[in-house]
Amino acid sequence: MENIGKKYTARAHTNIALVKYWGKENEELIIPANSSISLTLDEFYTDTSVIFDSTLQKDLITINDEITDDKKIINFLDLIRKKAGINLYAKVESYNHVPNSAGLASSASAYASLATAGSKAAGLELSDKELSMLARRGSGSATRSIFGGFAAWNKGTDDNTSYGYSIEDPVKMDINMIAIVLNGNPKKISSRVGMKISYETSPFYDSWIKQTNDDFSTIENAIKNGDFSTLGKTAELNAMRMHSLTLSADPSYLYLNKDSLLVIEMVKTLREQGIECYYTMDAGPNVKIICQKNNIKPIINKLSNQFSQDQIKVSGPGEKVKLI
Predict the structure, then answer these.
(1) What is the DSSP secondary structure assignment for residue 173, as one 8-state letter?
(2) Tell me: the pLDDT tens digits for 161-181?
(3) Mean pLDDT for the chain overall
(4) Tell me: domain 8-172, CATH 3.30.230.10, correct?
(5) Ranges of each domain in the chain
(6) Rounded to 5 degrees, what are φ and ψ at 278?
(7) Which residues contact 84 (CB under 8 A, 6 or more apart)?
């Protein structure tokens, strides 16, 4: 327990799912309805510091220097305390270098960094697999942000069999993502609420699961074979199939906005002009463009006709979580 009373800081990067998960079989344990694959990004990340201190009378939590008593974070700290067998309050300081709740996976990097710094500060020495299982209890996609490059989340059936793992790190494929930040504000319908509505009411949900299992195998093979085209096409289709679950739910809801559709049409135009690129979207209006290095400049030139430089962020593959 020599770590108790020492501050530890961890940095975790966001990830963007190439094969999405959209719906939970178990909400408490965050067991997904399907396995998923992602690419960790270097541009967006969260730094989180944790210290367990015997002089504290309650947990002190700040996010971007703003105090919060977020019950979800406190519950996550309780999980760490239970696992470590300690009964001390924590001071947590987190800095998010990514817009919150806007479909850019801020919760993934946030809970991956909190799991890593928090477990270390509590005296735990966890493997990457164990860290991914812990991070999952805060945010499902955080399971994958423990790992760099291409990572997967094995669906599993319970707390011990649902975990993340590395597919390829460092990444061999020439792959980049251009994020267009169309709206950095929190979304009106959270991912948690949206997933639940789709899972319970979309008549197409069973078909989505079957197709996504096929997409998982296709993209996993594309990564192993360095097949950028197949990866891009499949990721684009998978994203739009996910968003079809929002339209077919009761009540229906939508994360896309008019600018999202504008970017999608731009990507299609670029492809028609011989510039290979593909789009993907998570639960938010922001669009991510999957491309190779030599096409970054012409894509940005096209986007710059409609969007400011501040809205356009270029990312390469990111690193696994680490203590800093």
Answers:
(1) S
(2) 999 999 999 999 999 999 998
(3) 95
(4) yes
(5) 8-172, 176-315
(6) -140, 155
(7) 119, 122, 123, 124
